[in-house]
Write a structure and sequence with these properties.
- One of its GO terms (molecular function) is transmembrane transporter activity.
- It holds the Pfam family FtsX.
- The chain crosses the membrane at residues 21-41, 286-311, 331-357, 377-397.
- The protein has helices at residues 4-16, 18-53, 85-94, 131-134, 147-151, 161-168, 207-213, 233-254, 270-313, 315-323, 328-361, 377-403, 407-412, and strands at 60-65, 83-84, 99-115, 118-127, 138-142, 156-160, 177-180, 183-192, 202-206, 219-220, 222-227, 265-269.
- The mean pLDDT is 83.
- β7 (177-180) and β8 (183-192) form a beta hairpin.
- It has two domains: 4-52 and 276-412, no CATH class; 60-268, no CATH class.
- α2 (18-53) packs across α11 (328-361), α9 (270-313) runs antiparallel to α11 (328-361) and α11 packs antiparallel against α12.
- It contains 13 helices and twelve strands.
- By secondary structure, it is α+β, with helices and mostly antiparallel strands.
- A six-stranded mixed β-barrel has the order 3-4-9-6-8-7.
Length: 414
């Protein structure tokens, strides 16, 4: 079926109809090109969302308070709600068997920090030892806060990598003392954070020390928790939502807040947020698939139309072939061969151009929610194979029509 004469016929037909073949191939190549680029953008969005959620623990639940927005039990709206150690202890005692990591947080912004002649203004956060994992931070040197630091109100600090570069200029920092708001703290650790420079311009000190040196009493700015791992995502999400709702209710009762007040207590559930982002991302990716496939279908329809034209132009030739004994499947093979060849070549050209573009441009694309768009090579090859099969199907119907042409009618065709 596929012999040298058949190839000569195909190239001769292409040579005689260069523009038509080029435009047909262009429609097919552009379909593959667009589909691969759209799939890569969808993957880039997945990468971007994943990168955003790397900044903190993926199942982190953060709680902070604001002012009341509703009157409740004779208390006017506009009351400032402040959490304290009792709120933290209540949450821990009630959910001890559910919690993985936990910490209260007391923060101070814009604290002048000095080391010798270097200084900078940074956020200082009083935390517990678990906060390292809640922040997804990695120790570069030294250690993190421990229970002894909390019990003894130690004046020690763990500094972010950017703070280290600003103040110590890559020199030794462990064991040195920095001045934070006029108080000496010993540097016992340096950390890095997936969130980058913004997250690394902070200093962590023991929570008990922060409350004492900043005259905060037992006040807390926020609470942070992660729950024990579940067997699957659905169970983890259900447990996270139940914990968040229960904690919000407990805090509203403790601080005499209306159950319908949606401003006084704020709960941020990263697992819940992640589900929303990934659901949206999946919808966008399915939309991209739809657009790309429609583009390919348009190219395949173009191939089918061209094959119909070719059959019409070669009607007399087909009649002569049949008159001298050509079998129907021989005629079908002749038409299909050209259809598959044009579709395959155009498809691989579109694939190569799209992969080259992604290879050289993709790594430089880094926005908040799109990072390094790329596509799995096996997926790309599969789309081309599907395209070739579709091209064969598109060429079959014109080929079948050609095979059923009666020799006498074909010879009379003008």
């Amino acid at each position: 079926m596929f012999n040298i004469e058949r190839w000569q016929e195909i190239f001769e037909a292409i040579r005689k109809n260069k523009l038509r073949t080029f435009l047909t191939g262009l429609s097919v190549a552009s379909g593959i090109f667009i589909l691969v680029i759209l799939l890569a953008i969808g993957q880039g969005m997945s990468n971007g969302v994943a990168k955003e959620f790397e900044k903190d623990a993926t199942n982190r639940i953060s709680v902070w308070t604001n002012v009341t927005s509703e009157e409740y039990k004779g208390l006017n709206p506009g009351r400032i709600i402040e959490m304290d150690n009792r709120d933290y202890e209540m949450a821990v005692n009630k959910n001890r068997d559910k919690l993985e990591y936990k910490s209260g947080v007391y923060s101070r912004w814009g604290q002048l920090t000095t080391y010798k002649k270097e200084n900078g203004s940074y956020r200082v956060e009083g935390v517990r030892g678990d906060y390292q994992f809640l922040e997804n931070a990695t120790l570069v040197a030294g250690r993190y806060i421990n229970q002894g630091d909390l019990n003894n109100f130690e004046k020690v600090t763990i500094i972010g990598n950017q703070v280290y570069l600003d103040l110590f200029k890559e020199g030794n920092a462990i064991g040195e003392y920095v001045d934070i708001a006029g108080i000496k703290f010993k540097v016992v650790g340096i950390y890095s954070d997936p969130g980058g420079e913004r997250e690394e311009t902070r200093l962590f000190i023991p929570l008990t020390t922060a409350q004492r040196v900043f005259n905060a009493g037992d006040k807390l700015r926020s609470l942070a928790f992660t729950l024990e791992k579940q067997d699957n995502y659905e169970d983890a999400l259900a447990a996270s939502e139940a914990f968040s709702a229960g904690l919000e209710t407990d805090l509203k009762i403790a601080h005499t807040i209306s159950p319908t007040d949606d401003r006084a207590v704020n709960v941020n559930n990263t697992l819940e947020n992640a589900k929303k982002f990934y659901d949206l991302n999946n919808m966008i990716r399915w939309f991209f698939w739809g657009v790309g496939i429609c583009t390919i279908i348009a190219g395949v329809v173009g191939v089918s139309n061209i094959m119909l034209i070719i059959v019409k132009e070669r009607t007399k030739e087909i009649g002569v072939r049949k008159a001298i004994g050509a079998q129907p499947w021989s005629i079908i093979g002749m038409i299909l061969h050209e259809s598959i060849f044009v579709t395959a070549v155009a498809g691989f050209v579109g694939l190569i151009f799209s992969m080259l573009l992604l290879q050289f441009v993709g790594p430089f694309i880094e926005t908040d929610y799109i990072r390094n768009p790329s596509v799995n090579f096996s997926v790309a090859i599969t789309t081309v194979i599907i395209l070739v099969v579709a091209g064969a199907v598109a060429g079959f119907f014109p080929a079948y029509r050609a095979a059923n042409i009666k020799p006498i009618e074909a010879l009379r065709d003008e």
